[in-house]
Amino acid sequence: MLSPDDVMEMSPNLSGRVLHLSRGGTSVVIDLDAVPHPAIVHWGEELAGSTDETLRGLAVAARPQRVSGGLDAPARATLVATPAGGWLGTPGLEGHRDGASFSVRLELVDVEADGHRARLSLVDPEARLSAQLELDVGTAGLLRQRITLRNDGDSRYTLQHLHLAFPVPWDATELLDTTGRHLRERTPQRHPFGYGTYLRESRRGRPGADATLLLAAGRPGFGFERGRVHAVHVAWSGNHRLVAERSVSGEAFLAGGELFAPGEVVLAPGESLTSPEVIGSWGDGLNELAHRFHDEWRSRPEHPRRPRPVTLNTWEAVYFDHTLDRLTALADAAASVGVERFVLDDGWFLGRRDDTAGLGDWYVDPTVWPEGLHPLVDHVRARGMEFGLWVEPEMVNPDSDLARRHPDWVLRGRTTLPPSARQQQVLDLAHPDAYAYVAERLHSLVAEYPIAYLKWDHNRDLLDAGSGPEGIARVREHTLALYRLLDELKAAHPDLEIESCASGGARVDLGILARTDRIWTSDNLDPLERLVNQRYTALVVPPEMMGMHLTSPVVHSTGRTVDLDLSAAVALLGHVGIEWDLTGTDDETRRRIAAWVDYAKRVRPIVATGRTVDVDGTEPGIDVRGVVARDRSSAVFTLTQTDTTVSYPPGRVRVPGLDPGTQYRIRVVGGSTHAAAQSGLPWQEHDIRLTGRELDVVGLRPPVQYPQRSTVIELVAQSDTQAQGGAR
Ligand code: DGJ
């Protein structure tokens, strides 16, 4: 129950009660007496210094005046706003009972709260619905919301729409979201946040390559380093929607939730539905907003903590050309450069000689592997590497024994199959027999072979996904079954790591990342394109959970020829891997790869625990980003020349995020300079030290580089100056 400390009774002239949740630098102030149920008055910066009295005043200060042409009691954007409560914008909840009982007006009946958490109980006796709304401010200041809606009536309730709202400051007039496609996920786009509704929907049964990872609203021109910005993410791997809405009644909010197909959610009497978590973050700049996601995700007990093994994935090295000789040679080459995990990609199972057949038949193909995978697995492990295996458990090729035997296990909304994609269809994982089959296959494979890692792919969108002709839409049940399968596998094999891949990065969300250990960030290995993709993916995903691979010199997805040092520098600040047929490389190239792998192993503790820093305002043609150790004792930055610059030599770049009062020694780790540079880089030739403040405010000259080159610099605090650091 609510404790007296949490709820402030208003003085007689200020009617109502206020709830203040705070943690991790975030305050959430809730007016419990907003009508017909609570409204968030403030979500964002911690209101240090506020008193009970001022917070009560704040709630009153947010209340609207009555205006001409409006309602007699002006409506608020409450937590689950509906028209029956006076809300004229996008409702938080919509549903009906066989066409009737559309009206919903949830009222507060109970509050339980502690300092950072609240559970609000809402009921509508007339609509015969009740809801539990949970709000939790996490250790790093993320606001997580979740709702459980219950049908208290004696007839079925069809739920059409349910979202959770996060109000944003009125001066947040610019929106940022991401879009994209296969090979170009999470491309940013910005728009003015004007009156009306901006809607992003994912209808692909997975977030999709075009999905927005989050929807952000901030002060105009907000960047990574500065500018207040709020954002919302839906932690769900099925269909979802994100809304930004500015109302002429003077309220602006972001909202998110699952997106239901018609009839997908019908609650039987007494049945309830729990929504996915919708998670809000904020910051003075996107770096701070991202740190809240990273810090909180890292604080989970199940977060992968051991050093991220340098991985070699066989896909772009051999594609479907699986032969023991070729793969053992590749494993030898991988081991020689320091790889720690060898992942056998697509092509190992029954009938899978290309991408037209075999999905679903999860048995090792004896025509390719007469002795099973054992000879390869033993070879890999004998060279000190872990073994990983690719699977795509939710998928089925019509040309497979599985599809021939069990056509009823394939998702479809009508008698004909949904449009084909990559010659494959989707298995109805919510079908108990289909689930049992897939689960048995996966458990058996992991039991038979010492598989340390599954690369879990998902190569098509779900369309018309139902439980057979005249059945019901199944994306929600399918997604829940997927989660159950992942949870059960992890429980049965606690050391097993799983990568979420979906044609690269088409399933990137915190629902899947609650059950897996990393994502395959994109099938596009071109380092120049990866710069954008990785920067925006890292707004939510901690970098050590993002697969970043060295590409072969001619990038398969763009045809561009890239330098090894560029490829390595761009992969360095994530979970490093290699996707390249190393058997064709000469000794010198292998020596250079081995040196990068070695360096990546040295840097990975900082990557896995430190703070990402993306630098604003650098001249077009130069990209500066880095990661700073948690205690700010060291940092690694990349200075990447994406294009030529107008200035020549280029003007100074700033290196922010370090301790202002500490002096740092700066060392160039790798990179190559432009042949036209007439002299060495002066600061490189002297043993200079700069303070964190000098690096942030003034900066240094980047090297003159050819386009498409990168220089890695390492900054190490000088211990004699470090002690004074925090004090200045
Ligand atoms: C798509 C993935 O993103 C690739 O890395 C590879 O695993 C292929 N699928 C295999 O079919």
TrEMBL record:
State the UniProt keywords alphabetically.
Glycosidase, Hydrolase
Q: Which residues form the Glycosyl hydrolase family 36 C-terminal domain?
A: 627-715
Record has Lipid biosynthesis as a keyword:
no
The organism's superkingdom is given as Bacteria
In its UniProt record, a GO molecular function of this protein is: alpha-galactosidase activity
Catalytic positions are D457 (nucleophile), D523 (proton donor)
Which family is this protein grouped under? Belongs to the glycosyl hydrolase.
What's the protein name? Answer: Alpha-galactosidase
What organism is this sequence from?
Cellulomonas terrae
